[in-house]
Amino acid sequence: AMIKVSLLKQEPTSRPITLEGVFAGGSAGYAEGKLMQSHPLSLCNTSEDDRQETFFISIVKLESPESKVPQCLPLLDKARLALQRGAQAVIFDITDDPGAAQELRDSGLLPRPVVLVKSSDAEQLMGLVNKNEEAKVFIDIMMETQKWPHYDVGI
Amino acid sequence: QHKQVTGVSSQGCQGGCQTCSVYNGCLTCKPKLFIHLERDGMRQFGVCLASCPNGFYGTRSPDRNDCIKCGSECDSCFNRNFCLRCRAGSYLHKGKCTESCPDGLVPSDTMKECV
Questions:
Q1: Cα–Cα distance measured from residue B106 to residue B91, given in angstroms and rounded to the nearest whole number
Q2: ipTM
Q3: Residue B3: predicted pLDDT
Q4: pTM for the complete prediction?
Q5: Which residues have a Cβ under 8 Å from the Cβ of A114 and sit 6 or more positions away?
Q6: What is the Cα–Cα distance from B17 to A154, expressed in whole angstroms?
Q7: Residue B6 covered by a domain
Q8: Which residues form the R-spondin Fu-CRD domain (chain B) (predicted)?
């Protein structure tokens, strides 16, 4: 997945940041919205997140299993719950929870994109959140650059 | 209104936290405390409180104590289905917030109740 991030309070001429992620299961697609953090515990059946008026994309920093955050729901259900609450897409920072990728791998049909990010890509996104730098995120399918653009048969 | 447990523990967490992280704030609370998810602009982070703030009520379960939001028209509640005080424009009747009062009762704007 290609993730473009443009800060809402920046010079019109400045270029968006381009980051990379991986779509979960069959959720590849386009989405855009304001970046909003969701605490992992906000995606439980008991909790209810405050409704956002604008189009938003949820980002969830998943914690390491050692931090003993109550799981409350499987990751796939958390993703679905976030989308049901109006998120245009969900981004999971899996840097500290490597098992998450496995859990979301065969997630079948999802109504909108769910993207996994980690390491420096995740760090840049979470850095914006931590500094409350309002940002708009554009998610799209990354076009593979064809190695043999002029030929349709390779040997 | 809510007693926030302040101070910072050795792990750099807010005083009431059992575990925390830079981005999510509190992840688990010390016994008896409620975890409340506060939103500040883009950020949403956990804090541990002795009691839940206005507009929320506390629920206790073996693995964690949560602050859960009252109903939409309710300012302060005992639980999801029993409001104690309504927001402006709604009137309290038998634990519910309604825009108009049943026959025989009249709305009191000062008390925000059907009387």
A1: 9
A2: 0.84
A3: 37
A4: 0.85
A5: A23, A24, A25, A27, A79, A83, A89, A90, A91, A92, A104, A107
A6: 59
A7: no
A8: 15-114
| B61 and B87 inside one domain | no
Instruction: With beta carbons less than 8 A apart as the criterion, state whether B39 and B10 touch.
Output: no
Cβ–Cβ under 8 Å, residues A63 and A118: no
CATH number at residue A68: 3.50.30.30
Q: Which residues from A are below 8 Å from B23, CB to CB? A: 37, 61, 93, 126, 129-130
Of the pLDDT bands very low, low, confident and very high (cuts 50, 70, 90), residue A120 is: very high
Residues of chain B below pLDDT 70: 1-11
Q: Which residues span the domain enclosing B104?
A: 74-114
CA distance B97 to B94: 8
Distance separating alpha carbons of residues A25 and A34, to the nearest angstrom: 23
> Which residues in chain A are closer than 8 Å to B40, comparing Cβ atoms?
132
Q: Which two tokens stand for residue A23?
A: 């779509």
Give the closest-approach CA distance of B108 to chain A in angstroms. Answer: 29
Amino acid at B42: M
